[in-house]
Amino acid sequence: MPYTITEKILLAHTDKKSISPGDFIYARLDMALGNDITAPIAIKEFESTGARKVFDRKKIALVPDHFTPGKDRKSADQAKILQRFAIKHRIKNYFEIGRMGVEHALLPEQGIVGPGDLIIGADSHTCTYGALGAFSTGVGSTDLAAGFITGCVWLKVPETIKFVFKGRLGKWVGGKDLILHTIGDIGVDGALYKAMEFTGEVIRGLPIDDRFSMCNMAIEAGGKSGIIEPDEVTRKYIRGEGRRVKGVFFKSDKDARYCDVREYDAGKIEPQVSAPHLPSNAGPARKFKKVSVDQSVIGSCTNGRISDLRIAAKVLKGKKVNSRTRLIILPATQRIYLQAVNEGLAQIFLNAGGVFSTPSCGPCLGGHLGVLGKGEAAIATTNRNFRGRMGHPDSEVYLSNPAVAAASAIKGRIAHPDEVR
Amino acid sequence: MKFKGKVWKFRDDVNTDEIIPARFLNTQDARELGEHCMEDIDADFPKKVSRGDIIVAGKNFGCGSSREHAQLAIKGAGVSCVIAESFARIFYRNSINMGLPILEVKDLSGIKEGDYLEIDLDKGSVLNLSENRLYKALPLPKFIQEVIRSGGLLKWIKEKKGVKKNAK
After folding, report:
1. What's the pTM?
2. FRET pair for B160, CA 20 to 30 Å: which of A62, A100, A265, A318?
């Protein structure tokens, strides 16, 4: 039977002979992830069952990244729960502050997820690892607790929508713009319960960081997962920077079944902005030139990687942040932070009058390090612009790529990068 | 299981940041979370809602994050059941796993805020007592019924000891 890459990975993690969309399966996990918001509940539930041992101390990752470094006493207590559990069960992949990063940038970077893996994470953006050709999906704390105990997860085999990107990417256009445009096209529940498979000549030429940005936001269209067939770009990444990930390179069969196929001419997609309060409110950045911004945030599991910072630095070099605007840049991991320092990017950001902070999810979910006040507007390279997401219920978030966010910081209003170059 | 309660009506695409804003995620206490349930949509909701009341919403309820604080907040506020035209998938599975009763009903436009409903979870029926109209929920898949019958995922895996070896 012909299969999609998603169906092949799921099948490989069961003892079944065949599967079809709609089937309920009980699948083996390669990695189960939790953070300082979701893991405390999972740990509480794990302990409430009387379980004494985790299924595999090497297949669990605990990353205190949301409200860290400790934003208040209660948050510090939550992070402590992770640390204690990690010590008690000798969890291999626990990352303390200073070695930490935003989970979905950190796990691939550390080489603990790879092609062909089946991963769950108690964080909705766990779909990010699909960029490596893995099946990866967000779940809740109870699923995570069950995963800690059994090493398995129940899943309904999803149907797949294929998204084909043709043509050539324009200047200042990247993975973020492709995914914002796609969500704008299909809506915030356009891929509800479904796998989103990104393919076509544009995707084949897309750098790995852009692939992460795309798969990261599958959830914003309601998707169960985002996935890109692994190729030479993937192979280079998983063997790079000291990583030694082997992985299994699955590919979709030519005659695999898709519930929908959508094609886009990437050449027609300009840098995008998604207006409040849904990621699906996407349109060309140049249409938003009248929107003034109090803050620009560059970072997060969507766009806090080194190539994102390089793009931001390219726009900001020799420029100053507008006097009415705050620029906050959060590298996604400690390694990226150090890289940005070594490459001179940090100097560019600081000279421009920006804040350059330690890795954290921080303001993305209105946690800390840049929460918005009443009536304020921000442009952000993050993934969600729900009402009140970054702070006060009467504040606004516009989503964009790093080039647009950097240009907007200079102009004090939403700007196309060409306006400042 | 049967419930009777008053309806609080919400729109499409209610997200988890609205169900429980992230600023309150530094606790796991259901009652404390319940005091802030839905407050960014309706600041008075936590005060107005009574034990047993029912949330009725449009499509894609619970989109956004994977936080189970959303279910905890809804339970903590005293809500007995959530009915929506569709649910975001992580919210859906978290509700099943945590034992928060949810029902999917295709068209809920006939139910108004303040109506009284009688819900029969086993039959999947929703009776609008205020208008004497019966709605049928979409049937739950067999596997999900099994998890619900066990009383949530953790109880289900306890019943299925050794399931890891026999993954199928």
Report:
1. 0.96
2. A62
